[in-house]
């Protein structure tokens, strides 16, 4: 009851009505796991390293690497990228700001930013 199944079999027509002759049925566990999975909101903070040309170029590359890591993992969790220089901060939230959060992704983002553990924060939202 209320299960998602993969049904393999043949479609037959009897008295102008289609029916399925089932050879096998397999319960899909991945759907249940995803439905019961916790949902996350992720904030990735980049502290700008300076205003000279090299610093700006390095910061742009960091944002691009972060975005690449996030977009390689499609999912239903949401993220924002926060850029800060100490005086102000701005949030970058692309139109499709969803990804699949995992501890592996968290660690990769921290490594990409090279700004310590506080640069990436995740909270459970549901």
SSE blueprint and pairings:
Blueprint: E1 5-14, E2 17-27, H1 29-36, E3 40-47, H2 53-71, E4 77-84, E5 89-92, E6 98-99, H3 103-113, E7 120-124
Parallel strand pairs: 3-4
Antiparallel strand pairs: 1-2, 3-7, 4-5, 4-6
Oligomer: single chain
The radius of gyration is 23 Å
| Helical run tally | 3
| Percent in strands | 35-45%
Overview of the structural elements:
With 126 residues, the chain is α+β, with helices and mostly antiparallel strands. It folds into 2 domains: 5-35, no CATH class; 38-124. Helices cover 30% and strands 38% of the residues. The strands form 2 sheets. Strands 3, 4, 5, 6 and 7 form a 5-stranded mixed β-sheet that branches. It has a two-stranded antiparallel sheet with strand order 1-2. A hairpin with a 2-residue loop joins strand 1 (5-14) and strand 2 (17-27). The longest helix has 19 residues, at 53-71. The radius of gyration is 23 Å and the shape is elongated.
Short description:
The chain is α+β, with helices and mostly antiparallel strands and 126 residues long.
Overview features:
elongated; 30% helix; 126 residues; two-stranded antiparallel ribbon; alpha+beta
